[in-house]
Design a protein that fits this description.
single chain; GMP Synthetase, Chain A, domain 3; 4 domains; seven-stranded mixed sheet; 21 helices; 34% helix; binds zinc ion
Length: 632
């Protein structure tokens, strides 16, 4: 399918105008918007289908202003149509997008069988409908992201229009080469950022920070090649871990005003973590080179995509996101470049096995010539125990400490591992393997991240989704308790056994440190690691047997004597281990010609690249940062 210009699109619509009902064609980012005086016509007829087939793009129909029912009237009309048990929270009208936004608990009932209810609303009022789920757990982040989007409606329409014009511009150059340059994240875990270029386009895959990095290697290296930040066409974010998106707001401070493509949960989770990072930076006098203003700009410029929704993003690049199975909303990025010239698959971080939360990574693509693959656990000896063994070991450790009246402290990152561990704990409670008296306290951004999980049920695996739709939501387990302001002291003083999940995952800061200082000198307690501990982090040092830790108490240095038990349970990782990575390379369909291994320590990347060559014959390398690789 050839790439179209805006003029081509207008011409196609004019020549194939369904029933002559389209009065104007416009753009909202990659989507084509058709305006009409007669929206009900399109609901009753199939005539739009042949036009969509010709355009091969997402098409949105919107009413002309004169065909809209006044909001007050429309609202009471909608209230009459909607069933009570849909539990509607809010009905708001967006004049610019000519949409009515309906927020409800039971979206299925708002849509109705075969979209019956939805269509009734559109036909009665002329307003298009946008649906939002009320999270079963209240979420401040979801509320504020939704507010930013609604309140910037006029501005966003302008942004989307100009993005659309850029996408469907007349190209200056024909696409006869493709190259990739890692600006960070090659032969390292941290600051992932890959520049993909053609004669016409400049696109970034991810824009992360290196949380454990020093002054000189904390951020991606933008000195590379001829790149000016304001020359970028677009940025695509694979998932919401800081090492993949922590530097994104910086671009908006230094001249970028283009779009960000990612899934909806990624948008919300990354907003949460960036705001948290800005606040922590301010508190700890280690300020990031951007503020919450730029985070807000990023939200306004984000264009969410569903998995497998195809979107043109430049005159010679077409983007599709696929499920990566790593954390909620995580994506594998597929780029179709030129008219069939080249196809890139960038895995981001992947998990190629089942977990309690998500489906395994997608491995079927329309085409792939170059695979850019993560290698975090790609080293020769990087094997993870199977999940059943890991869960059994976790239970043994928990019982051991809890039966002694001890407190169990589990350091975790807010997104991903926390929710996975929560689902395992839920099953322990359900099968009475742990006393129902034991509370699980969640401190840091874990509760908020869990609330975001409950908002995007479509992204969870089928089993979990079915359980929730059938009325049992394991995230709402009574034992799970959000630690609010002031609760922390009480928990620390209490003599009762409990489980605490607290950030940060590698004990580089955050509430986990407070608990640790308080619990460390009591041998009844347990520190339980379930995640990756990077070299140099406090977590790694304690794991390696550090028992005397100097700490600051009221300005004086005191020595903390670690007597609590320190245990590690592997097997809960959101990453594919070496066996799974090789399994992925074996299964990926079709086979790539070339593999670039990134996102891993130098030796692991090189070893995995060598193995991929010897096992499958792929031309495999582990490029370094700022090495430009010409793909065609
Ligand atoms: Zn990740």
């Amino acid at each position: 399918m050839a790439f179209l210009e805006f003029n081509d699109i207008k011409k196609i619509v004019k020549e194939n105008n369904p029933g002559g009902k389209v009065t104007k064609v416009d753009l909202e980012g990659p989507k084509v918007v058709l305006y009409t005086d007669d929206l009900p016509f399109f609901i009753d007829s199939d005539e739009i289908k042949s036009l969509v087939n010709l355009l091969k793009k997402r098409v949105i129909l919107r009413s002309n202003a004169n065909a809209l029912m006044p909001p007050d009237e429309a609202k009471s009309e909608i209230e009459k149509i909607l069933p009570d048990d849909a539990v509607v929270k809010e009905i708001v009208f967006d004049d610019y997008f000519r949409e009515v936004i309906i927020e409800a608990e039971k979206l299925g009932l708002v849509i109705g069988r075969k979209s019956e209810t939805l269509n009734k609303i559109i036909k009665a009022t002329g307003w298009q409908v946008k649906l939002l789920r009320t999270p079963p757990i209240q979420s401040d982040i979801i509320d504020s992201v939704r507010k930013i989007i609604l309140n910037s409606s006029k501005e966003r329409q302008k942004i989307l229009k100009s993005v659309g014009k850029q996408i469907y511009r007349k190209p200056d150059a024909s696409c006869d080469w493709v190259r990739v340059t890692p600006l960070g994240g090659a032969r390292q875990v941290g600051r992932s950022c890959f520049l993909i270029q053609t004669p016409e386009s400049n696109v970034l895959l991810d824009c992360g920070i290196n949380p454990a990095g020093s002054e000189t290697n904390r951020f991606p290296d933008f000195r590379a090649s001829d790149l000016a930040i304001n020359k970028l066409d677009s940025v695509i974010i694979s998932h919401s871990h800081l090492d993949h998106m922590g530097f994104l707001p910086y671009l908006y401070k230094y001249g970028y005003d283009g779009p960000v493509y990612c899934t909806e949960p990624t948008r919300d989770l990354m907003t949460m973590l960036q705001i948290d990072a800005v606040e922590i930076g301010e508190k700890e006098n280690n300020e990031l080179p951007f503020s919450s203003n730029e985070v807000k700009e990023m939200v306004k410029h984000t264009i969410p995509l569903d998995y497998e929704e195809v979107a043109d993003i430049t005159p010679d690049m077409r983007l599709t996101l696929y499920d990566a199975g790593h954390i909620l909303g995580s994506s594998i990025i597929h780029l179709h470049i030129g008219d069939g010239l080249h196809n890139i698959v960038y895995t981001g971080d992947i998990k190629f096995g089942s977990t309690k939360l998500l489906e395994p990574a997608n491995f079927r693509f329309p085409r792939v010539e170059t695979l850019i693959m993560e290698g975090t656990y790609g080293g020769r000896y990087d094997a993870q125990p199977n999940r059943r063994d890991a869960e059994n070991l976790l239970l043994i450790h928990l019982k051991n400490a809890l039966s002694n009246n001890g407190k169990v402290l589990i350091p975790v990152f807010a997104v991903g591992r926390s929710q996975e561990v929560l689902m395992v704990l839920e099953s322990f409670y359900r099968f009475n393997k742990i006393s129902p008296e034991i509370p699980v306290y969640l401190d840091g951004m874990i509760w908020e991240a869990t609330a975001i999980h409950t908002t995007y049920l479509e992204h969870l695996n089928e089993r979990l989704r079915k359980r929730i739709f059938n009325g049992y939501n394991p995230f709402l387990t009574e034992n799970f308790k959000n630690v609010k302001h002031g609760d922390r002291e009480k928990i620390m003083k209490s003599k009762d056994p409990c489980i605490i999940l607290a950030t940060s995952g590698m004990m580089t800061g955050g509430p986990v440190i407070e608990y640790f200082k308080n619990f460390a000198e009591d041998e009844k307690n347990m520190l339980l690691f379930v995640g990756y501990q990077a070299e140099g982090s406090m977590g790694k040092r304690i794991q390696n047997g550090l028992v005397e830790i100097p700490i600051d108490v009221g300005g004086k240095t005191k020595s903390l004597n670690v007597k609590m038990k320190v245990e590690t349970v592997d097997g809960f990782s959101g990453h594919a281990d070496r066996r799974q990575l090789l399994g992925y390379a074996k299964k990926i369909d079709p086979k790539p010609k070339r593999v670039l291994v990134v996102h891993g320590e130098s030796e692991k990347c090189m070893n995995l690249a060598m193995t991929l060559y010897s096992m499958f014959g792929f031309e495999s390398t582990a490029p370094q940062n700022l090495d430009t690789v010409r793909l065609i």
